[in-house]
């Protein structure tokens, strides 16, 4: 991998030294944007002091793409790319309240959504291959593109669609600005926020540099009520057999550091760009939990085992220290010559996740209190090197032929170890609990020697070799594209936690993935888009490692399957769009996906480690499903009724799906049945001010797997802002978010065995509620 990194750097520097330079942003998900088609360079004053209202862009590409510039989000001061995406159609989250990390396009698991940065795939630490969007500060974003269908130009890992985050480049900004302010949380904590961006001409090209330091904080409170021993055949659990109550504080406290830069040169025939971004997260997650034997009240430790007096059952302290960083370095070279236009792209990305987590617990519901401690150390290092080469030939003035290849080498190393401690206590700890500051951490001793967690120490190497070809045309009111992509993948796995005979495995698979899109202009203001494509989702990393995880699913074991193949889907999108005035647009889109080779858990026939009634389960390609829905979006001013300085926006998506598992029919796991967002912005030019509000709500989500079922619901989210512009270079903005104190409520049905889940014989029924208070921001931007 070091050799590949040097190849990338040498190629970029050599191209720069020769003056073979390019100025366009890396290929966007909407289309390949060259320098002549990028945004007009704006002064820093124009970006800082917005004279107008941002609207959804009217994309002219054949593919169904929604484009949102930074101006669309900026006034609500999103902290991250995830926060920004809360305002676009069909994106849901199952994150903790006031957090937006794993984007669920069309409500599907984050692993079904392809996330690109400047058109390039990026690795993440998550086992489902997803990339958390809270890693990218919103201040670095130029625009967000939602690609609803696939194209042969891009890798086909986009069953739900593609989100492309385009970072700022030198051809957007002339000058610079600084951003500074703070965030106030409901517990009184204040976190700073600072950023700076500069763009300008340097030598024969243009440079852009951006930096951001963001304090991150999320103080949450959780309450769980648990019930036991339900009667059999009780589909709707009667919550009348109370077992215990857990009260928890959960605080995420940290700082994100980010940097991005690019250097671009644009000539008549040769363009070059080299760009990079870097994001580091330093975070501590602290949880403190108390379990009581009553539904209300706060009491000290139980006096003895089995006591019916109110009392504390257990005290748990959990701290996770997280240090993550990810970076990408890429270059792009475009050359026009007699036989057409050739484009070469090189990229290197790395994501490193290091975590040090301790958990200490003391249980008082025993004759003699019991103490335990556990240490989990995690290191996941995921690196990708990629090369893309394509060539475009003009067949005639209205038709182009494009063909190319793509190479990607992924190397993912996981090292997860655990250690324990169980020092003996005596019964006097009950009466002397105060002297330990009511914290089990004070009882900790040295941990035993660390051991590898099952499936936690492995190396996965995934090599991809793709070829593609497409034809695209533009004839009067019709734009179209049709192509095919062939993807060849070779996977090699070595797991140090299984027997040597099974430790190494390899799998190869090939897929042919056609796609086509057309856009037809009915009038100057009306057009329809029709797209179809075959897409895929590659298996989760934790499913393809051959390790056996005991008691992973209730009392059942989970055995990995190195022979898993990707899920695939045939999909179609049909949309209609109408332009409103000069800036507005309203659209409606229907979509359908027919999914094959779904990964489901199958009974291997072997008895589980917990004995009779338990089994060993293994993920296998054995299911089919379908996903469908309707998406509506609107972005416009109200000039038609004489209110040109009032902008409105809104989107509404109805989402549905169907899949059959061992227990019956359900949606795809954790898919919300709807999501909508509405809001307005009122500009006041005469006083240099503006204000606005945004309201968001998503529907309930239900997920079912062996051993557990969960229903998740969220409260609504209300955000408002007030802005004052001072002269031509200063803007001050106050923003309030989560003003409705949104809650996340979860209902858990837990079972020990498959038979128990079928007969509805519960092991535990749990009602969990999580709540966070409002957040207030005060931000200022000054252009220079």
TrEMBL record:
Residue stretches making up the TonB-dependent receptor plug domain: 60-162
Pfam families in UniProt: Plug, TonB_dep_Rec_b-barrel
Domain TonB-dependent receptor-like beta-barrel: 258-739
Annotated compartments: Cell outer membrane
Predominant cellular place of this UniProt entry's protein: membrane
Positions of region (Disordered): 293-315
Gene Ontology CC entries for this record: cell outer membrane
Keywords tagged on the record: Cell outer membrane, Membrane, Receptor, Signal, TonB box
UniProt xrefs under InterPro entries: Beta-barrel_TonB (IPR000531), Beta-barrel_TonB_sf (IPR036942), Plug_dom (IPR012910), Plug_dom_sf (IPR037066)
Signal peptide from the UniProt entry: 1-26
Entry similarity comment: Belongs to the TonB-dependent receptor family.
Protein name from the UniProt record: TonB-dependent receptor
